[in-house]
Design a protein that fits this description.
The chain is α/β, with parallel strands linked by helices. The longest helix is centred in the first third of the chain and has 21 residues, at 7-27. The strands form 4 sheets. Strands 1-9-8-5-4-2-3 form a 7-stranded mixed beta sheet, sandwiched between helices. Strands 7-6-12 form a 3-stranded antiparallel beta sheet, with no helix packed on it. It contains 12 helices and 14 strands. The relative contact order is 0.17. It has helices spanning 7-27, 35-48, 59-69, 86-94, 113-125, 145-155, 207-217, 238-248, 251-270, 297-309, 339-347, 359-373, and strands spanning 52-56, 76-81, 98-102, 129-133, 158-162, 170-171, 174-175, 182-186, 200-204, 221-223, 226-227, 283-284, 290-293, 348-351. Helix content is 42%, strand content 15%. It folds into 2 domains: 7-102 and 109-248, 3-Layer(aba) Sandwich (Aspartate Aminotransferase, domain 2); 251-373, Aspartate Aminotransferase, domain 1. The structure holds pyridoxal-5'-phosphate. Residues 58-60, 84-85, 87-88, 136, 162, 164-165, 186, 188, 198, 200 line the site of pyridoxal-5'-phosphate (PLP).
Amino acid sequence: MIPIVDLKGQYLSVKKEVMEAVEKALDSGQFVMGAEVKKFEEEAAQYTKSKYAVSVGNGSDALLLALNAYGIKSGDSVITPAFTYYATAGAIARCGAKPVFCDIDPRTYNISPEKLEGVLRVLGTKGHRVKAVIPVHLYGQMAEMDDILAIAKKYNLKVIEDAAQAFGASDKGRKAGSIGDSGCFSFYPGKNLGAYGDAGLVVTNDSQTAGLVKIYRNQGEKKKYQHSVIGHNSRMDTIQAAVLSVKLKYIDGWNKKRQQLAGFYDKELRSAGVITPFVAKDKFHIYHLYVLRFKDKGQKDRIEKSLNEKGVDARTYYPVPLHLQECFEYLGYKKGDFPEAEKACGETLAIPMYPELKQEEQEFIVKTIKEGLK
Ligand SMILES: Cc1ncc(COP(=O)(O)O)c(C=O)c1O
């Protein structure tokens, strides 16, 4: 069985260091927000080239807390792509605002700046109070941030980067998370920088935003037992920070290895007629996921089935676009509203990608796909 991501192999490669760091963290007796948390925040700020990094409980809350920090609430609208993980739009709804979806660029699967501007033009005529846009750096490649920032400036919007899948990705040397007003990360174990439980992070260059995220993550507490806003319990465990500090040292090497593996897949599969990931100009793609595209849903389903039957895990991220999810029915969207997102849901397939993937495993995966195409 070749899994889509193998967490155990990587754990074994850092086990000794991780166990020592975890033991030290536990010995401190500070199990939540201990010294290791502060240390990881400093390291993460430096790594992402951001002034401030505020640790939180998970990536979903990172988005929610950033929205809270900007005062976004009921009556406001926030735009995000229709093709992303639920949590991006979930955070918008959880802060009371209305998620507004936008279609994607079919080459990168990221939000299309042209379509974003189109959505804003229509909303402007309908009296929506649009406060922010959340571009998602899907699969590990950054969205077209320069265009998005220019549009956001024109329409006076906050830009919150959903960098949950893109730790270490960059655009013209600018790190994911550091370009917008704030950037949100997830360290869910399966992420390219994964903790051994839930954890997340908000980075920003604005001291007020950082200060407010700190208040919102800790029950709205400004001072001990003095609650200035309705906050949440979304603090980072000391153990997770200890694990993340160890793994942060290796992330560049792991991301490089992912790129090498992607290079092999690209070469082998492109020549077989499969659409391999498109890397936009100046982007450093870290391949959190390696996603192929097939000519239609039928072909995608056939290849997925043959891989699965031969013991290779392959999946679609994501099979249902957000505007067609039951939980967002109240927004009133219908099939056909975002054709590129809908097509991507039917025609894309992620194949195994993690730094520990072996050459012979990759060869087997490629061979199985090529056979399935015949
Ligand atoms: C694009 C995206 N946004 C947000 C999240 C939410 O992160 P978490 O699972 O840490 O809450 C995830 C991952 O799960 C994600 O892939």
